[in-house]
Batch of 3 targets.
Target 1
Amino acid sequence: MTYCVGLLVRDGLVMIADTRTNAGIDNIAVFRKLKIVSEKGRRVLAIATSGNLSVSQSVLSLLAEGVENPETGELETLDSQPTMFKAAQLVGRAVREVWRVDGPGLEQMTARFDVQLLFGGQVAGGRLRLFMIYAAGNFIEVTPDTPYFQIGEHKYGKPILDRAVTYDTDLYDALKIGLISMDSTMRSNLGVGPPIDILVLRKDALEPELDYRIEPSEPYFLDLRERWSKALRSAHMEIPRPPYGSNVPGDI
Amino acid sequence: MTYCVGLLVRDGLVMIADTRTNAGIDNIAVFRKLKIVSEKGRRVLAIATSGNLSVSQSVLSLLAEGVENPETGELETLDSQPTMFKAAQLVGRAVREVWRVDGPGLEQMTARFDVQLLFGGQVAGGRLRLFMIYAAGNFIEVTPDTPYFQIGEHKYGKPILDRAVTYDTDLYDALKIGLISMDSTMRSNLGVGPPIDILVLRKDALEPELDYRIEPSEPYFLDLRERWSKALRSAHMEIPRPPYGSNVPGDI
């Protein structure tokens, strides 16, 4: 399992990915799922992946080696894409190419061709953007109405995002809320686990402001987990008890 | 979709069920999923159901008409079961009987024989118990370590339960936390919706203390939803921003 979340707010982009992979509950390992490609002043591109690890790794390898442009026959990499939209299309082409090679074999073994990606970043001259790319190579883009995307085990960590994140949320508050969302997910699904890779990319900076791995023992993250649990526990205490039944005062 | 939660705390049992059914997003209806059978001073039994509505309704109809006891040939109903364990076994037998009749036809149409039930209550002379019954007719029972079960769309509403409910939680706090869990689920999954049926059964009372339907417009529930959203939004503000990146003070 995997959990990745990307948040695009007014001031910038946050991407967060766990690192746990499992082939069954008895075969757990640590793999980085957040890949960052950057050239200072020109572009910062980040890909977070979920799904079948062989598929997502092949997509990344193919993007590094180059995906053939069907019209020109040339090999293209992320470095050569002039816009985020063109770069997202290239990632989609890479996904479809891996499907062409590995998809039928996977299906023959009744395994699903399962991959989903978050693709965010900025190319000089364009705006900061965040896409979610599907197994068919198609993609959607974040808009201010719902300024985040999730891939993998998305349900446990969604309620906090639904309520606390807007496009105007401060960049480091977005990071914090993303980490709370990650914590909620890790608490309820053992298939999602630390360390946690994070990227903070400020709008128009064209270099990562933060590219960091949070280790499980890190005091800030332990403190966040403890405070959030406590906040959840105490939050419901502020709410009056239901005015039904025998032991409750009538006024609420 | 469906969401039902049952909480068994020291003082009693809470069961909560939504009422939305959908055959596709364009075919939504209201069906009661919480069935209560009680005879004052003798027994209170409650069944909450999720899964294929035709299956769960057939299980309930069969339990009302009587399930044949394979050893005696007699028809047995919930009214005649001397203990909660025997009653849970009877529900399991009803599930298997519906499987025998409808299972093969469903599978031929590539529909799953999909049903899961919460079964809670007390029979005079025995203790208050809560079971989760699977499509195979087998079941598990709540213990004080994890004093709740969920069926249906369980993920969105699990984080609050994981953190706020223990066996020693007050009975009406358990109801409140269950309603918060229901609210979290309804907010994130349109397939789960109001009105909401609730049962509160105090230990050894042998009659429902509360058997109630919360309508969507009810002031208490609207207030709970609003307060919980506000509490979630403000809870994260109490947590310091991450000590990473450029715009954050070094001390946390």
Target 2
Amino acid sequence: MKQAGSRTRAVNPVNPAAAADAGIQHAALIALDWGTTSLRAYLYDAAGEVLATRASTAGIMNLPSSDVEQGGFDAAFDDACGAWLKQAPAVPVIAAGMVGSAQGWVDAPYVEAPANANALVAGIVRVKAACGATLHIVPGVLQRGDLPNVMRGEETQIFGALGQETGAVEGGKRALIGLPGTHAKWAVVQAGRIERFHTFMTGEVFAALREHTILGRTMVTPDRPDTDAFLRGVKIARDKGQAGMLATVFSARTLGLTGQLSREQQPDYLSGLLIGHELGGLEALLTQQQNSLAGQHLRLIGNEALCERYRVALAQFGCTHAELVKHATERGLWRVATQAGLVNPAPQAVHAG
Amino acid sequence: MKQAGSRTRAVNPVNPAAAADAGIQHAALIALDWGTTSLRAYLYDAAGEVLATRASTAGIMNLPSSDVEQGGFDAAFDDACGAWLKQAPAVPVIAAGMVGSAQGWVDAPYVEAPANANALVAGIVRVKAACGATLHIVPGVLQRGDLPNVMRGEETQIFGALGQETGAVEGGKRALIGLPGTHAKWAVVQAGRIERFHTFMTGEVFAALREHTILGRTMVTPDRPDTDAFLRGVKIARDKGQAGMLATVFSARTLGLTGQLSREQQPDYLSGLLIGHELGGLEALLTQQQNSLAGQHLRLIGNEALCERYRVALAQFGCTHAELVKHATERGLWRVATQAGLVNPAPQAVHAG
């Protein structure tokens, strides 16, 4: 599966058909990464190569015409894929993310962890669009317990990241995969299964503290990220974080009041504090399983700049092998579609390495 | 110092002079608890009894006419105390709280912990109001370190709580005082000094999570507080909180998704989680000092309903002796004014018990 540049080959939204024309006769799959605030569509050929990409802000909480029943989903789907489907109406369609939630187009009930790709395939729910196409909605994963966890979309990205490795060599090894973001996920994967996972609301809590508490009032966004301030926050959380995040975050203000942290440094310091608390919490969970961040070979999926912040922070916990996995979403959607029999990949797309 | 009912004897704002007339000829002190969002004024006689109280929303960030330089402070002060001062212009005036911050009427620089009442008195800064009265502004307290801490107003409440005890019997014992609220404080007091203190942004973080994250979207405010849901949150934080608050708070949503927590239970559950994390953090700090919450005899200052929640939560940490101190603000303002020589208390107001 060649992916080089697929993220940047966004189709011109003014005339998507023209740009997609180049490869539409080879189209084998349309896949949607349909979240809360964004929709991304991929068009693949039979070798799993991404021929075209479309992106919009039509997430499920941001649909173009939500007043008409289900019409909002149809309109967003048409806008993203209508031109492709007009030229290739028989191309199968798969979708992952919040589109399968209770607030989505159709509710694709969670499958329970541990879950492998076959479990996801078995949980696919179909919905027929007004244009006649059938969408295959990938379910999310649920982990029961005192602190239940859920994911929607990340399970597909995780299988996309696993798709790169040979099952024979790495399949039995326990792997740790991090997905930084609004609701950061950390998943333990073994033998091609998501064994268990944890959610840290780091991104959303950062935004809420920054925008809706006294901490934000003294902050000024710097021209460029301040790595020193970020690292200072990570280290404080790691070394002085015993009292927990509710206690340490106040220092973003008091270090300012005492002239030790400028207004421009405060956002990165707070970001470092929160990510440091997340990794400290992850370390505590790993310790319970006779494991540790130190020496881990782990993978990160997500926004590159954010993953880079996590790499810097992870090094403070002794973890210097954090590999950024690119195009996990496209790879994962392709992999689940393949496993579901929606596509018969051409020989060169066999996922053996 | 008799305080019974002083909080409820608010003067009728339509005709404050009439209601205050009863005792104005005995007036010995006007004291202001002037915070960010509220202003409360007390009129005392020479025995330290509160003759009248006035309350308004004219906190320093909510002044009536902030467009005129300093006029906002004068206007709010006149509105609160003008009628009293007209009849008793020579009565001394003391004020504590954010009115002494950099954003306040005058900046009363922090005194450094450890700090006793004499240190507060030495740090008093005076400001002359347009009406001719001089306000004596009590400074806040600063504790330096990697995680600096500041308080403004709470120091006066703490000395108000200490004022109840006999110096001879309790003065040398180490005492723990909690002030739940937007920015909860926990202070260690010994020999009449605030030795050190910690700030937990529990109240403000709760509000930010409730109002500005996905957690609030599934919440419905219950008709009355749900103690079971609250306790469940406290226990989860205590027993399963190793991964930290960023991880546990997501369960307010996922327990709802899995049908284990109703919409009406989610607010109290989240409140219990956060207060549980605060107390777990406090316990970790105490452990560093070979101390523990279990068996502590501590005092709580603040809103009664909130302090009651803390008492319930503290019991889960083995602390069953948490005494609610009432009228700590009025007592503290009176005590600092006395120590500053602003009033010469009548014999019956000696603070020996």
Target 3
Amino acid sequence: MAKAVFYHAGCSVCVDAEQAILPYLDRTKTDVETIHFAQHPDKLDEAEKLGVKSVPALVLNGTVYHINFGASMADVRKAVGK
Amino acid sequence: MAKAVFYHAGCSVCVDAEQAILPYLDRTKTDVETIHFAQHPDKLDEAEKLGVKSVPALVLNGTVYHINFGASMADVRKAVGK
């Protein structure tokens, strides 16, 4: 089973990607977890270590896929006060 | 049934995204077509009209999702001589 983590910061580009793409991932092949940085600012370091530079980002089997551009991680940190 | 078109230019980022992401799209919900610009340079105009600015890009239900960055469309045009 593949592991997919979708990193979300509440930005409109994030919301669009979440609603438009995640429903099309095959849940028989991958577990999908969505992490909202506003609710889980403790995940910022983990995401950056994985290579996440902007949101929205989908980390699939450990590889980061930045999907369009909503906000930089620096701006996400400012927004959540971390 | 949703329509997904994956635009590919043979770049390593394109190959990675193709191999890593497309297998996880739910084929019971979406038809997936892959277009290689090297083989179909006639699709360049169509892609740009849809809003594709770089490859790899996934157009899902008409909305463009640029996935990481492999090459600009200008560079793709140079590469295929169009």
